[in-house]
Specification:
Layout lengths: L45 H7 L8 H25 L6 H12 L8 H22 L3 H17 L6 H12 L3 H25 L12
Helix pairs in contact: 2-3, 2-7, 3-6, 3-7, 4-5, 4-6, 4-7, 5-6
Length: 211
C-alpha cells in the first residue's frame, strides 16, 4: 500500500505566504460593534499635577511632630550650652545638620561620618582660605566649592559643611575655640538622634552606618 505525501497548502502566484489576519478585541454583546476600541489610560488632570508635583508623600503627623521635637530639643541644648560658656555654639550650619539628621536619618548626608567629618573638612578649608586669601565673599564662595569637592572625594556628603566654611571665612572665629565647639556640637546632634530613634516605635534606626 502506497502512502501519498501531504500536499503543501496552496500558495498565491507570488509564492509568498500571506500575512496573518489582524486581531481585534471582540465584544460579547451583539448590540455593540464587532471591534471594541481599548480605553486610553487615565491621565491626572493638569491642575492636580501642578499642585501635587513629584514630591514624596506627606509624612504622618506623628513623624512630623517627632522631627520637630527632636530637632528643637537638640538645638535648645546647644543654645543653652552657648549661654553657659558665653560662646556661639548654635550656628546656622548646625541647625541645617539637625534638620537633616532628624528628618532624613537614613540618607548618607545624615550619617555620623558625613556630619562629623563634613564639618571638620569644612572648617579646615575655611581656615586655609582665611590664611591664604583673607576674609572676603569671593574667598568664601571659592572655599565653599572646594569643601563640596572634598566632601565628595571623602565619601562624606554633608551640605551644611559648606556653610561652615562660609561662616569661618566671613566671621573669622578663633580656631582654638571654634573647632572644639563645632566638633562637640556635631557629636551631640549625632548622639541625640541615636537616642531619639530608639525611643520612637517603628522609627528607622539611626545611624545606618557609623563610618
Amino acid at each position: 500500500m502506497l502512502r501519498t505525501a501531504p500536499t503543501a497548502p496552496d500558495l498565491p502566484p507570488t509564492g509568498r505566504v500571506p500575512p496573518a489576519p489582524e486581531t481585534f478585541v471582540l465584544s460579547a454583546d451583539p448590540t455593540l460593534p464587532t471591534e471594541t476600541p481599548r480605553p486610553a489610560p487615565a491621565r491626572t488632570p493638569l491642575r492636580n499635577r501642578i499642585v501635587t508635583g513629584g514630591a514624596p508623600a506627606r509624612p504622618a503627623l506623628t513623624g512630623a511632630l517627632y522631627s520637630f521635637t527632636a530637632a528643637t530639643t537638640g538645638l535648645l541644648v546647644l543654645a543653652a550650652i552657648g549661654a553657659v560658656i558665653h560662646e556661639p555654639v548654635l550656628i546656622s550650619p548646625l541647625a541645617a545638620s539637625a534638620a537633616l539628621v532628624h528628618s532624613a536619618p537614613t540618607l548618607p548626608l545624615a550619617q555620623p561620618r558625613s556630619v562629623l567629618a563634613g564639618h571638620l573638612i569644612g572648617a579646615a578649608v575655611g581656615y586655609t582660605a582665611l590664611a591664604l586669601a583673607g576674609s572676603s565673599p569671593w574667598a568664601a564662595a571659592i572655599a565653599a566649592g572646594v569643601t563640596l569637592a572634598l566632601l565628595m572625594v571623602a565619601r562624606a556628603p554633608h551640605s551644611p559643611a559648606c556653610a561652615t566654611t562660609v561662616v569661618i571665612v566671613l566671621q573669622t572665629p578663633e580656631a582654638g575655640r571654634f573647632v572644639p565647639l563645632l566638633t562637640g556640637a556635631a557629636t551631640l546632634l549625632i548622639l541625640a538622634e541615636y537616642a531619639a530613634s530608639r525611643l520612637r516605635p517603628r522609627a528607622p534606626r539611626y545611624p545606618a552606618y557609623w563610618w
